[in-house]
Amino acid sequence: MWSVWLNGAMGFIMAVTMCFCLGDLSKIIHTPTGYPFIQLFFNATRSKAASDAMVTIMLIALTSGCLSETATTSRQLWSFARDKGLPLSYVFARVSRPADVSKRFLLKINQVSPTFKIPFNAIIASMTITCLVSLINIGSTVALNAIVSLGVVALLSSYSITIACLVWRRLWGEPLPPRRWSLGKYGLTINVISLLFLAPICFFAFWPLSIPVEPSTMNWAVVMFGGVMVWALVYYAVWARHSYTGPVAVVNREQ
Q1: What is the pLDDT of residue 114?
Q2: How far is CA 188 from CA 176, 177, 191, 195, 217, in A?
Q3: How many CA atoms, within 13 angstroms, populate the side-chain half-sphere of residue 177?
Q4: What angle in degrees, to the nearest 10, is found between the helix axes of 36-45 and 48-82?
Q5: Where are the alpha helices (H) located in 46-186, listed in sequence order?
Q6: Which of 33, 40, 36, 34 shows the shortest CA–CA distance to 17?
Q7: Cβ atoms within 10 Å of 129's Cβ, excluding its own
Q8: What is the CA radius of gyration of the chain?
Q9: SS3 of residue 248 by DSSP
Q10: Which pLDDT does position 174 carry in this prediction?
Q11: HEC states along 173-197?
Protein backbone atom coordinates (compact mmCIF):
# COMPACT_ATOMS: atom_id res chain seq x y z
CA MET A 1 0.00 0.00 0.00
CA TRP A 2 2.90 2.34 0.73
CA SER A 3 4.05 1.94 -2.88
CA VAL A 4 0.69 3.38 -4.03
CA TRP A 5 1.16 6.47 -1.88
CA LEU A 6 4.79 6.85 -2.99
CA ASN A 7 4.00 6.54 -6.69
CA GLY A 8 1.02 8.87 -6.35
CA ALA A 9 3.15 11.54 -4.67
CA MET A 10 5.89 11.23 -7.29
CA GLY A 11 3.31 11.36 -10.08
CA PHE A 12 1.84 14.55 -8.63
CA ILE A 13 5.28 16.16 -8.42
CA MET A 14 5.99 15.14 -12.03
CA ALA A 15 2.66 16.57 -13.25
CA VAL A 16 3.27 19.91 -11.49
CA THR A 17 6.81 20.07 -12.90
CA MET A 18 5.53 19.41 -16.43
CA CYS A 19 2.91 22.16 -16.10
CA PHE A 20 5.58 24.69 -15.13
CA CYS A 21 7.88 23.61 -17.98
CA LEU A 22 5.36 23.44 -20.81
CA GLY A 23 6.20 26.73 -22.47
CA ASP A 24 4.22 27.58 -25.60
CA LEU A 25 1.42 25.00 -25.73
CA SER A 26 0.77 25.50 -29.46
CA LYS A 27 4.41 24.74 -30.28
CA ILE A 28 4.24 21.56 -28.23
CA ILE A 29 1.07 20.38 -29.96
CA HIS A 30 2.34 21.23 -33.45
CA THR A 31 5.94 20.17 -32.84
CA PRO A 32 7.97 19.17 -35.91
CA THR A 33 9.16 16.08 -34.06
CA GLY A 34 5.64 14.68 -34.11
CA TYR A 35 5.89 13.82 -30.41
CA PRO A 36 4.88 16.56 -27.95
CA PHE A 37 6.82 15.05 -25.04
CA ILE A 38 10.10 15.43 -26.97
CA GLN A 39 9.35 19.11 -27.55
CA LEU A 40 8.52 19.43 -23.85
CA PHE A 41 11.92 18.07 -22.90
CA PHE A 42 13.63 20.50 -25.29
CA ASN A 43 11.64 23.46 -23.99
CA ALA A 44 12.68 22.61 -20.44
CA THR A 45 16.37 21.92 -21.12
CA ARG A 46 17.15 23.95 -24.28
CA SER A 47 19.59 21.19 -25.11
CA LYS A 48 19.27 18.52 -27.76
CA ALA A 49 21.70 16.25 -25.91
CA ALA A 50 19.72 16.50 -22.67
CA SER A 51 16.46 15.93 -24.58
CA ASP A 52 17.90 12.83 -26.25
CA ALA A 53 19.05 11.48 -22.89
CA MET A 54 15.62 11.99 -21.33
CA VAL A 55 13.89 10.39 -24.34
CA THR A 56 16.27 7.43 -24.06
CA ILE A 57 15.32 6.96 -20.41
CA MET A 58 11.64 6.99 -21.38
CA LEU A 59 12.21 4.47 -24.17
CA ILE A 60 13.98 2.09 -21.79
CA ALA A 61 11.17 2.45 -19.26
CA LEU A 62 8.50 1.93 -21.94
CA THR A 63 10.29 -1.13 -23.33
CA SER A 64 10.55 -2.64 -19.87
CA GLY A 65 6.88 -1.92 -19.30
CA CYS A 66 5.95 -3.58 -22.59
CA LEU A 67 7.89 -6.71 -21.66
CA SER A 68 6.21 -6.95 -18.27
CA GLU A 69 2.79 -6.35 -19.85
CA THR A 70 3.44 -9.07 -22.41
CA ALA A 71 4.45 -11.48 -19.65
CA THR A 72 1.28 -10.62 -17.73
CA THR A 73 -0.86 -11.07 -20.84
CA SER A 74 0.64 -14.46 -21.57
CA ARG A 75 -0.10 -15.65 -18.02
CA GLN A 76 -3.68 -14.42 -18.28
CA LEU A 77 -4.07 -16.12 -21.65
CA TRP A 78 -2.77 -19.39 -20.22
CA SER A 79 -4.93 -19.13 -17.08
CA PHE A 80 -8.07 -18.38 -19.06
CA ALA A 81 -7.41 -21.33 -21.36
CA ARG A 82 -6.81 -23.53 -18.31
CA ASP A 83 -10.19 -22.46 -16.88
CA LYS A 84 -11.94 -23.32 -20.19
CA GLY A 85 -12.86 -19.72 -20.85
CA LEU A 86 -11.60 -19.57 -24.44
CA PRO A 87 -13.01 -21.06 -27.64
CA LEU A 88 -11.76 -24.63 -28.05
CA SER A 89 -10.13 -24.35 -24.63
CA TYR A 90 -10.80 -28.06 -24.00
CA VAL A 91 -7.95 -28.71 -26.42
CA PHE A 92 -5.62 -26.69 -24.19
CA ALA A 93 -6.85 -27.87 -20.78
CA ARG A 94 -3.99 -30.26 -19.96
CA VAL A 95 -0.73 -29.20 -18.37
CA SER A 96 2.02 -30.79 -20.41
CA ARG A 97 3.99 -33.76 -19.21
CA PRO A 98 7.77 -33.77 -19.49
CA ALA A 99 8.47 -33.98 -23.17
CA ASP A 100 11.34 -33.90 -25.56
CA VAL A 101 12.83 -30.43 -26.16
CA SER A 102 12.16 -30.70 -29.87
CA LYS A 103 8.43 -30.92 -29.16
CA ARG A 104 8.10 -27.80 -27.00
CA PHE A 105 6.98 -25.68 -29.96
CA LEU A 106 4.01 -28.01 -30.42
CA LEU A 107 2.64 -27.47 -26.89
CA LYS A 108 -0.91 -26.25 -26.50
CA ILE A 109 -1.38 -22.62 -25.55
CA ASN A 110 -2.10 -23.39 -21.90
CA GLN A 111 0.65 -25.96 -21.45
CA VAL A 112 3.80 -25.08 -19.54
CA SER A 113 7.03 -25.75 -21.36
CA PRO A 114 8.95 -28.55 -19.58
CA THR A 115 12.21 -26.89 -20.63
CA PHE A 116 11.58 -23.27 -19.66
CA LYS A 117 8.91 -23.86 -16.97
CA ILE A 118 6.81 -21.10 -18.55
CA PRO A 119 3.71 -21.00 -20.81
CA PHE A 120 5.95 -20.76 -23.86
CA ASN A 121 3.30 -20.77 -26.57
CA ALA A 122 1.18 -18.23 -24.71
CA ILE A 123 4.17 -15.87 -24.63
CA ILE A 124 4.82 -16.40 -28.34
CA ALA A 125 1.14 -15.73 -29.12
CA SER A 126 1.15 -12.54 -27.04
CA MET A 127 4.38 -11.29 -28.62
CA THR A 128 3.14 -12.06 -32.13
CA ILE A 129 -0.15 -10.22 -31.63
CA THR A 130 1.68 -7.25 -30.10
CA CYS A 131 4.08 -7.04 -33.05
CA LEU A 132 1.25 -7.31 -35.58
CA VAL A 133 -0.74 -4.57 -33.83
CA SER A 134 2.30 -2.28 -33.85
CA LEU A 135 2.50 -2.67 -37.65
CA ILE A 136 -0.99 -1.22 -38.06
CA ASN A 137 0.48 2.27 -37.65
CA ILE A 138 2.25 1.87 -40.98
CA GLY A 139 -1.05 1.55 -42.83
CA SER A 140 -3.47 3.60 -40.75
CA THR A 141 -2.97 5.84 -37.74
CA VAL A 142 -6.76 5.94 -37.30
CA ALA A 143 -6.87 2.17 -36.73
CA LEU A 144 -3.94 2.31 -34.31
CA ASN A 145 -5.52 5.15 -32.33
CA ALA A 146 -8.74 3.13 -32.11
CA ILE A 147 -6.85 0.12 -30.74
CA VAL A 148 -4.99 2.30 -28.22
CA SER A 149 -8.27 3.84 -27.11
CA LEU A 150 -9.80 0.37 -26.93
CA GLY A 151 -6.99 -0.72 -24.62
CA VAL A 152 -7.74 2.14 -22.24
CA VAL A 153 -11.48 1.42 -22.24
CA ALA A 154 -10.92 -2.33 -21.76
CA LEU A 155 -8.60 -1.67 -18.81
CA LEU A 156 -11.09 0.66 -17.14
CA SER A 157 -13.91 -1.79 -17.83
CA SER A 158 -11.97 -4.59 -16.16
CA TYR A 159 -11.56 -2.39 -13.09
CA SER A 160 -15.26 -1.54 -13.10
CA ILE A 161 -16.40 -5.17 -13.43
CA THR A 162 -14.07 -6.34 -10.65
CA ILE A 163 -15.10 -3.57 -8.25
CA ALA A 164 -18.79 -4.01 -9.11
CA CYS A 165 -18.56 -7.71 -8.18
CA LEU A 166 -17.06 -6.75 -4.81
CA VAL A 167 -19.83 -4.19 -4.24
CA TRP A 168 -22.48 -6.76 -5.11
CA ARG A 169 -21.01 -9.31 -2.70
CA ARG A 170 -20.70 -6.74 0.09
CA LEU A 171 -24.27 -5.52 -0.35
CA TRP A 172 -25.73 -9.03 -0.37
CA GLY A 173 -23.55 -10.28 2.45
CA GLU A 174 -21.76 -12.86 0.32
CA PRO A 175 -18.37 -14.01 1.66
CA LEU A 176 -15.34 -12.58 -0.12
CA PRO A 177 -12.47 -14.79 -1.31
CA PRO A 178 -9.43 -15.14 0.99
CA ARG A 179 -7.09 -12.15 0.66
CA ARG A 180 -3.90 -10.90 2.24
CA TRP A 181 -5.04 -7.29 2.60
CA SER A 182 -8.42 -5.68 3.20
CA LEU A 183 -9.89 -2.18 3.33
CA GLY A 184 -11.95 -3.25 6.33
CA LYS A 185 -15.13 -1.34 7.09
CA TYR A 186 -14.18 1.33 4.55
CA GLY A 187 -14.11 -1.18 1.68
CA LEU A 188 -17.68 -0.69 0.47
CA THR A 189 -17.42 3.11 0.55
CA ILE A 190 -14.14 3.12 -1.36
CA ASN A 191 -15.51 0.62 -3.90
CA VAL A 192 -18.58 2.77 -4.57
CA ILE A 193 -16.48 5.93 -4.92
CA SER A 194 -14.21 4.07 -7.34
CA LEU A 195 -17.17 3.05 -9.50
CA LEU A 196 -18.50 6.62 -9.54
CA PHE A 197 -15.04 7.82 -10.56
CA LEU A 198 -14.65 5.25 -13.35
CA ALA A 199 -18.13 5.60 -14.84
CA PRO A 200 -17.70 9.02 -16.54
CA ILE A 201 -14.16 8.16 -17.65
CA CYS A 202 -15.37 4.98 -19.36
CA PHE A 203 -18.25 6.89 -20.94
CA PHE A 204 -16.18 9.70 -22.43
CA ALA A 205 -13.35 7.38 -23.48
CA PHE A 206 -15.56 6.30 -26.40
CA TRP A 207 -16.07 9.85 -27.68
CA PRO A 208 -14.13 11.36 -30.61
CA LEU A 209 -11.41 13.85 -29.75
CA SER A 210 -12.58 16.58 -32.11
CA ILE A 211 -15.55 17.87 -34.12
CA PRO A 212 -16.86 17.70 -36.76
CA VAL A 213 -16.72 13.93 -36.58
CA GLU A 214 -15.44 12.33 -39.76
CA PRO A 215 -14.29 8.78 -40.53
CA SER A 216 -10.68 9.88 -39.95
CA THR A 217 -11.46 11.48 -36.57
CA MET A 218 -14.08 8.99 -35.36
CA ASN A 219 -13.21 6.99 -32.26
CA TRP A 220 -13.85 3.49 -33.55
CA ALA A 221 -13.12 1.94 -30.17
CA VAL A 222 -16.84 1.92 -29.39
CA VAL A 223 -17.50 -0.32 -32.41
CA MET A 224 -14.66 -2.69 -31.55
CA PHE A 225 -15.55 -2.84 -27.86
CA GLY A 226 -19.23 -3.41 -28.60
CA GLY A 227 -18.43 -6.11 -31.13
CA VAL A 228 -16.17 -7.98 -28.70
CA MET A 229 -18.76 -7.71 -25.91
CA VAL A 230 -21.56 -9.03 -28.15
CA TRP A 231 -19.37 -11.90 -29.36
CA ALA A 232 -18.32 -12.76 -25.78
CA LEU A 233 -21.92 -12.74 -24.51
CA VAL A 234 -23.09 -14.96 -27.38
CA TYR A 235 -20.18 -17.35 -26.85
CA TYR A 236 -20.90 -17.55 -23.12
CA ALA A 237 -24.63 -18.06 -23.62
CA VAL A 238 -24.17 -20.76 -26.25
CA TRP A 239 -21.11 -22.61 -25.03
CA ALA A 240 -18.94 -21.26 -22.20
CA ARG A 241 -21.61 -21.27 -19.48
CA HIS A 242 -21.65 -25.06 -19.73
CA SER A 243 -17.90 -25.44 -19.23
CA TYR A 244 -16.51 -22.31 -17.56
CA THR A 245 -16.79 -22.41 -13.76
CA GLY A 246 -14.47 -19.57 -12.74
CA PRO A 247 -10.76 -19.50 -11.84
CA VAL A 248 -9.27 -22.79 -10.75
CA ALA A 249 -7.95 -22.40 -7.22
CA VAL A 250 -5.66 -25.44 -7.28
CA VAL A 251 -3.94 -26.97 -10.29
CA ASN A 252 -2.54 -30.48 -10.08
CA ARG A 253 0.32 -31.16 -12.44
CA GLU A 254 -0.02 -34.45 -14.25
CA GLN A 255 2.72 -36.88 -13.39
Answers
A1: 55
A2: 12, 15, 5, 11, 39
A3: 8
A4: 140
A5: 48-82, 120-134, 136-139, 141-172
A6: 40
A7: 13
A8: 23
A9: coil
A10: 78
A11: CCCCCCCCCCCHHHHHHHHHHHHHH
> CA 61, 67, 71: angle at the middle one, nearest 5?
145
Q: For 47, left (φ over 0), alpha (ψ -120 to 50), or beta?
A: beta
d(Cα 150, Cα 84) in Å, to the nearest integer?
25
pLDDT for residue 115: 57
Peptide bond into 177 cis (omega under 30): no
Residues 51 and 186: their CA atoms lie apart, in Å, by: 45
Q: Is the pTM of this model over 0.70?
A: no
Q: Is 43 exposed, middle or buried (0-12, 13-18, 19+ CB in 10 A)?
A: middle
Per-block mean pLDDT, blocks of 10 residues, the chain (255 long) = 84 86 79 84 86 91 86 81 72 46 48 60 79 79 79 87 89 78 84 92 83 80 88 87 68 45
Within 10 Å of residue 220's Cβ, how many Cβ atoms? 17
* pLDDT for position 196: 94
DSSP class of 101? G
